[in-house]
Amino acid sequence: MIFNARRQLPLHIHIATLFIALILLLGGAVIWNNYTETTRLMLQTADERFERIADKAARQLQVLAAPVAIAVDLLTLHRLTLATSLTERLESLGYLREALAQADHLSALFIGYDDGDFFLLRSLPEHSLLRAGFAAPDLARYLAQSVERDDIGEITGTFVFFDADLNLIRRDAKPDYAFDPRARPWYQAARTQAKRIRTDPYLFFTTGEVGITLARRAAAGAAVIGADLTLRDLSVELAASRFLPNTQLALFDDRSQVIAYPDPARLSHRGDANQLRLSTLAELNEPALTLLDKDWRDPVQRAARLNPAGFTLEIGEQLWRGKVKALPFQGGTPLFLALAVPENELLADTVRMRNKSVLIAIVLVLLAVPITWLLAHRIARELQNLVSEAARIRRFEFHQPIAVRSIIAEVNQLAQAMDLMKSTIRRFLDIGSALAAEQRFERLLDRVLAETLALAEGEVGILFLVSDDERELRPAAARLLSETGAVAVNRLAALSLTDSPASPAGCSRPGARPSNQAAHAGRTAGRLSGRAVGSADAAHRPVDRCAAA
What is the pLDDT of residues 522-533, one digit of tens each? Predict the structure, then answer.
C-alpha cells in the first residue's frame, strides 16, 4: 500500500493537536454557556429591579396622596365651607396649619366658593424660594391668600403673613389678585360629583412645581375643598433609583407629559407662546425617550411598548433595552413609568467576566501546549523506538533485546510481542547456524530438540529417526524441561512402520507386538514426565492403525 507522505504527520503532532482542540472546544463551550447564562441573569435582574422601582413609585404615589386625601375629606365637613368673609375664614387657620404639618409634600390647602371667593393657606419654609416671590417677612412661615367678591362684583385681594405660631406679621392688599376658582378644572370637576377627584399632573402657577390637585365638593354649603400635592419627591426617588450612569427613568402621563425625572429642572418647557408647561418625553432631548415618545403616540406601537417582556430600541449603533409599566393612581388616569438602559452598560459586567474567562482560557491553553507536547512526544518516542527495533529486525540485528518501557499498556504489549518475535527469529537462526556448524550428529540432534522444545514451550520432547531399512522409528534424543542435559533414550522402544492394517497378524512380528512397543514407549515417556510431546507425527500412525485393527 502506498501512502501520500505529504499528508503524514508525526504521532505527537496528532496527539498535541487533538488535546489542544479539545481544550479549546470545551473551554469555548463553557465560556459561551457562562456568558449566555450570565446575560440572562443580568437581564432578569434588571427586570426585577425595574419592577421594584415601579412598585416603589406606585406605593409612593399612594403614600403621597393618602394624607392629602384625608385632609380634603375632613375639610368638606369643616365650618370653613360656610364662612363668608376673610375674618371668619382666618378663624380656621389652626386647623389648616395642622393639616399642612402632616405632609411636607402638601403645597397648599384652599377652598373655592360658588360666589367666586377663594381662600388658601400655604407654608413658607425658611429656605423656600417662594419667599422672595411673595416678598415675605423674615419671620413669616405661613401665607394666607384671599379673594373676596361683594354683591356688585368688586374684588378684594389680600395676602396675610403669619409666623410659626400664627401671629399676624403683615397684611398686604393685592388689588390685582383676581383669582376665580370657578374657572379652574379642579373646581369644575369636583362640583359635579360627590366623590373626590384628582386632576392630571400640571405645573403649579405659583410655585412652578409639578403636582396634582385633589378636590371634593363640600358636604354642606356651596364650596369645593382643594389641596395641591407636589410630586417633587418622585423625581428624588427616581434619581436615587438609577442603577447605571445612563439609565433613563421617567414618570409620564397618557399625553407623554413627564411628571418625574431624575433631573427635575428639565420637567418644565416653554411653549410657543412663552408659556411654561410640562415637558414631553421628546423634549427631554434623550434619544431613547424621544423614540419612545414617537412610538407612544401610535396606538399599535403603544401596545407593543406596554408588553411586560420589554422591548429593544436601536439608536445609531447602540442597542437599548426598555420597559414601560402602568402605575394605577386612584381618582384619575394611570401614570406610566419608563425605563431605558444601554445594553452595553447593562451587560458590562457580563462582558468583563466573559473577557476574563477568555483570557484565563488562553493562559491555560498556553500552559497546556508545552505539557501536551511533552506528553505526546514521550508517547510517540516509545513508538519511534519500536519502529527502530523493527528496522533492526529487518537488518537481522538480534543481539540486543527490546527494552521499551512506556506508560501506555498497549505500547508495552507491542514491545513484548516484538521482543518475543525477535527472540524466536534469533533462535531459528541459531538453530540454522548450529546445524551448519555442528560436527557431532548426536549433539546436533540434542540441540535441535532443545531449541524446538523451547520454541514450542513444551515440557518433554522426543526425537525419532527413521531406521536405515525404513521399517522403524527409533528414538534418537529426549529432553525434559526440568533437567539441564539430554535424557537417555535407550529405555525407549522403537516404533514399527511396517505393520499392515488389513490383517491383525500384521500388527505382530517376531519379538514383540507393535502395539506393545508403542505402549512401552509411551509408558517410558510417561515415566519421564506426566505429559509427553512427540516430535514425529509418523510415530503415531502405526499405533493408530494397530488400534483400529
Answer: 444 444 433 333
